[in-house]
Amino acid sequence: MPPVEPTLIAFPNPFARYFAATRPAFLSAALVAALLGLATARHDGVALNPTLAVITVLFALLAHAGANVLNDYYDALNGTDAANTERIFPFTGGSRFIQNGVLTLAQTRNFGFGLMAAVAVAGVWLMAQATPQLLYVGLAGLLIGWAYSAPPLSLNGRGLGELCIVLGFGLIPVGADLVQRGVFSLAPMVAGLSNALLTANLLYINQFPDRSADIAAGKLHWVARLPVAQARWGYGLIALGAYGWLSLTVALGWLPAAALLGLLSAPLSIKATHHLWHHAHQPQQLAPAIQLTIQAMLLHGGLVALALIL
Predict the structure, then answer these.
(1) Domain CATH number, residue 67
(2) pLDDT above 90 covers what percent of the chain?
(3) What is the pTM for the complete model shown?
(4) Is residue 275 part of a domain?
């Protein structure tokens, strides 16, 4: 039985209502990315500060939550979520909190910017505890989280959404590593890129059920710009880039051989690619492929982090 969309009756508690609006099930992507950054620092012999590690993870989750809420707000403004009749809840078509009257447009806007303000405060505290260089990572992350959906940039609607995801989720391990190490390192960039690419693939496949509504709203990402038969190639190419990058970094000695454990997620990506290939023209059939994409992303990042720690 498919999940039931949110209603005001289902969330009488305001705290639960606002918490659910962040789409907490999807915040695991930020969690894995932060763990990767902690793992690269530990792999290089840095003694982790547990307090800073926990706060860094919470900081990453808060930033992802803020981006999710703002995305809902701006997609309500441009009308794409309201017009989306082919959505696969809870994966595509937004959280439905605005459309179903659980939160108003203004409440969602205020909550989203409130979360981003909290991220800024947490970032200032972390800077004081770790290094002022964290400012650059924090500002870049906030800019990407806002510009992804917000006009006048609306980067996802200009075909730059996947790049935003790669950069945003690439910055999380960089920031987590920087807090522990105290200086910038290439290690979290190297270790985090394959995970960031698989995270971008979640956005990519989610755009197939949303395609018609996005086109009507002028949100022209690549799945909307290309014919479906051509757009379906993109998913496999992104996955190939992720696993190819991991293999290359191990071959060059940039990551330990144990990091190849991340390739154990490849069968999930392959299965999702096969499913998308056969059902790209039937977006309502893509829920299994979306679930496989999430599983591949989390398994890949988790295994690479584990390999680095061990």
Answers:
(1) 1.10.357.140
(2) 97
(3) 0.96
(4) no
